[in-house]
Amino acid sequence: MHTRSSDLLRGALGLLFVAAGLAFLPGLAVSGEPSEVPSYYESRQQGWFWYRDPAEPRDPTEEPPPEASAPPSLDAYAPDELWTLHPDEFRVLLDTVFKGALQQPSEENVLAYKRLETVARLRAARFASVASLVSLKHPEISTLRDAPSVNPGMRARRQVEGAEIDGTLSGAREGFALLYFTSPGCPFCTEQDAILRYFTAKHGWEIKRIDVGREPQAAEFFRVSTTPTLVLIQRSSDAALPVGVGVVGLSTLERNVFRGVRLLTGTVTEEDLWIYDYQRGGGFDPAAVSSSGLQGVEPGSPSRPAAQLPR
């Protein structure tokens, strides 16, 4: 009997100590009153590691946010109106009808979306048809000549560009040269060496090899931070231009040197650096587009203001 009373007393004291300890835990209240501190299970997926900030307490005096307006309905438009609806409004309508059909894929809802999708496809086809005619009637804004998509046209393009590059490099080899920055034990420089031998044999250019370990001041002057690096220099001035960083293929090197020579001689500017002479006056020439009376037109400006969506 004495042992039973002792066990009951120890159990009661243990419960008392547990209750006293819980009173000090955050988020728990043993007095029956709710705690203002959220428990771990209420806020465990908030914070920096979850990319979510805790929600700020809402001011009770703040006005509730305005209710969102109802999405546009296909019933609000006549069939003929869909063909002239502003693209922004048409896009919202198409998205709304699609989501409605996806949420409730009844035959009626899916048919409504497919009909609206057909209008969108035919409107795009109508625009493409007119655009093709405009490209034929106004070659100054077309790229049909400068970017052919058929094999004979692409072969002719490569021949024209190759002849222009070879002619420019041949005429510039006396007034320009290449600085070739290398470093001991550079495996990429070994591969670049073979490519430069082809370049020299084909165009007859002088290439000066510079070891950055022996001439660090030259690398610092030309801001060379990696090898191999190729720098184009003009003999009659202090002008210089990087034309290759890392291993550069022969065709890429030829184009870079071609563009660098034209830039340093003032034949082109930074804006038309990639223009070839045969492309002058075409769809890739910024000067040709500017001279056609398009200076005041902002790209993407609508022809009329967007209509208000129905509420």
Q: Which CATH architecture of the largest domain?
A: 3-Layer(aba) Sandwich
* Averaged pLDDT: 80
Order of helices and strands: HHHHHEHEHEEHH
Indicate the radius of gyration in whole angstroms: 37 Å
Strand tally is 4
**Spatial ordering of strands, largest sheet:** 2-1-3-4
What is the end-to-end distance?
82 Å
H/I helix tally: 9
Number of domains: 3
The CATH H-level superfamily of the largest domain is Glutaredoxin
| Overall helicity | 40-55%
- Specify the structural class: alpha+beta
CATH topology of the largest domain: Glutaredoxin
Share in β-strands: 5-15%
Largest sheet: 4 strands, mixed
Low-confidence parts = 22-31, 295-311
Task: Give the overall silhouette.
Answer: flat
CATH class membership of the largest domain: Alpha Beta
Describe this protein's structure.
The protein is of the alpha+beta class and 311 residues long. It has three domains: 15-57, no CATH class; 80-133; 151-280, 3-Layer(aba) Sandwich (Glutaredoxin), CATH 3.40.30. It has nine helices and four strands, in the order H-H-H-H-H-E-H-E-H-E-E-H-H. Helix 3 (87-103) runs antiparallel to helix 4 (107-137).
